Each structure stands twice: as structure tokens, then as C-alpha cells.
Amino acid sequence: MLPRIVVMGRPNVGKSTLFNRLAGRRIAIVDDTPGVTRDRKEVVARVAGRDVLLVDTAGLEEAPPDTIPGRMRASSEAALRDADLILFVVDVRTGLTPSDRAFAQWLRRQGKPVLVLANKAEGRLGAANSLEVYELGLGAPLPVSGEHGDGFGELHDEIREALPPEPEEDEEDDADRPLRLAIVGRPNAGKSTLLNALLGEERMITGPEPGLTRDSVAVKWIDETGKPVRLVDTAGLRRRARITQALEQMSTAATIAALKECEIAVLVVDAVQGMDEQDLRIARLAEREGRAIVIAFNKWDAVEDRAAARRKVEDVLTASLAQLRGILVVPLSAATGKGVEKLMPTVREAYEVWNRRIPTGALNRWFEDALTRHQPPLVEGKRLKLRYATMPKARPPTIAIFGTRAEMLPEDYRRYLVNSFREAFDMPGVPVRLNLRGTENPYSEE
């Protein structure tokens, strides 16, 4: 297990900026709006010469447990329980607040190693402004600037001293590489509730308020088969016309980035409302990125006419997502847990299809049969000659077809080949790429 370093502090003191600086890349969303980080965010990073699990947390606030700030604080406190080191961040520009003092007193009772970071201490007055932080009784503060990188050399030295001794390293087995799974969908479809149901704990903040998740949050998990999974909960994607605030634009960008990095996308759809155009846009986006998709038909327990609901979603998929024909749909209720146990076996099934390679011999037998059943059309009065097919890659399944002027093949015949391939080799619900490679006659210009 990697040592866990948890970044904590009240809202808007620069925790996420420090987190990104230590991680060496922009992972957490940073904005002047207080409370942007609502769920803790984890990433493996190289800090102080060793690999660690770096954890960014929501801002610590005094609030009733049933409010959003109260749930944010509970999430941060849960992160502290497994921490090997706490980086407690204060803002020296604004000076110590009663909240800083209250949470410092609370941290002293936890019995965890703590480094106090006097953030925003850039410039000549930075060190002088940080002297006040001695009052917290957590040791000498480290003047740093998450934005400019000031003081990070000393910070790495202090982290190296504070962490437990490094154990002997075990060689990682590539077979243990986790499946990368992104949970996507519209706001308030139940994405975070589903992630919590899969994990069996209140890992993500949930509630009736739409848009609670603002950033893409990755969680490592071992599923019921004992295999590792990297789950990513994402912010809800709204229609572009409704994305007005800069913060929401960054949340959308983080969601799209999660789609680019995942292998399988679970599209969470509100079964009561049914699939709408925005759900289809998200599915098309995942398809363009080459990701396999499984639909989690959430809130199934609240659907009155289930047969009608199934027919409706199947009609929408047939009419509007023909490029993902046969997409797998799992009805479930994330809130009650009913049907959730069927999701991961379905995801693994989609993953196997997405990874499947077809031998060249079998591929060309299919190709010859497809050409026999429907000959290529005439283009400019001449029939296209398609010669053979190969499968250069999977993830997603990709077919390369060679022939004279193959690149001129009309769109409807391309769709015929893709659908024929999908049916012949039982590949439902995954994107299929078709690359056409023409062969030129070297004497055509003579």
C-alpha cells in the first residue's frame, strides 16, 4: 500500500492548487469560487522521491451533517482516518480565522502527523506573514505558494522526513492493471449514488441537489471477482447552451477528459424520465472516443410501467444510436441497491467484446461472404474492387479494408459492412472502426 498524504483546510485556501502542484499536473479543478472541491480526489504521484497516494479533500466547514458543507466535512474526515500524513493548509493573506483554529485543535486530537502549510506566502512578506500560524500549535509552518511553486523544495524534504519508512518494493504485475471505468450522464441521474452502491460506502456526496459533483473523481476498487477497477465519477453533462459559468465549463472539460482516459463508460440514465437528447449526445461522445458503453437504467424501482419503459429506450437506441447497435442495458436502483450486482458482470462482458481480436482467416471468410451477399456499388460508373480485410487493432475493434478506390465506398455500404461484422462476431454495444485503404494503379496517369 502506498502512503496516503491528505491535503486539508477550510474552503478557498488553495488546497487544490497545492494538490495539482504536488501531483505535477492539473487534476483538481481550481477556481476562486469557495467550495469547488466537494468530493475527495485521489491520485498516485511522485512526491519527495517516492510514490504516494495524494488526496485532495473538500473544505472543512462547521455545518449540520445534513447540509452539503456538512457532508463535505464528513467526507474529509473519512479521508483522514486512513492518512499517513496531513498537509493542513491555511491562507496567510487573510490570516488565521476561528475555523482554522478550531480545525487545528481537532487535528491535534487525531494523533496523525501534520505539516502546516502557510499558503500564498509568495514575495518578501510571505515568511513574515506566516509567523502567525505558529499559534495553531502544530509545529513550525512551511511558507509555500501553490500558485508559484515557492517553498516546494523544503516541502518535499519535510514530507520525506514525516512519512513512514519506505517498505521493500514489490514488482507490479501488468495483469493486475485496473479496468478504467467512467460513470457519466446528465446531472442528478444518480451517478454518485451508483458509485457509492458499488463501493458499499458513502464515498461520494449525494443528495437531491443537481450538480453536487463538480470534478471527475477517481477511486480504486476491487470488484466482487477480485479484479481491480479504477472508477471515475464525473460531473453531470448539461446541454452546451446551459453551460454558462467558467466553473461548469471546467467541470465539463474534466468529464470529457475522463471519457478520453477510460475504457468502458457507464451511462447513467434516469429511468423515470427516459433517454433524452442529452443522453444520446453523451453516448455519441463516448462512441467518438472509441469507448464501449453500458447503460445503467437507474431509478428502476420508481418506474410504474416497466415494459413500456424498456420498449421506449430500445426504440430510442435503435433509431438514434445505430452505430452502437446492441448496447447493453442494466435496469437497477442505485438508491436501494437492487440490480446493482448485475452491472459489473455486464461491464466485464462489454470489456471482453471491446478487447476482442478476430483472426485474419475468420475475418476474410466473413468479408468474402459479405461481398457475395451484397456487391459493392458502382461509383462513377465503375464497380469498386474490395480485395481483403485485416484487423490491425482492438480497443475498439478496427477493420482495415483494402481495394482499388476503397476510400470512395459510399456511407450506406460502410454501415452495411460494420453491421454485418457486428452480427457475425457478436459485438454488441461497442464502436467499430472501419478504415478504407485504396490501392492506386501506377499506370493510371500514363
Automatic annotation (TrEMBL):
The gene is der. Residues 3-167, 179-355 form the EngA-type G domain. GTP 2 binds at residues 185-192, 233-237, 298-301. One of its GO terms (biological process) is ribosome biogenesis. This is GTPase Der. Keywords: GTP-binding, Nucleotide-binding, Repeat, Ribosome biogenesis. GTPase that plays an essential role in the late steps of ribosome biogenesis. GTP 1 binds at residues 9-16, 56-60, 119-122.
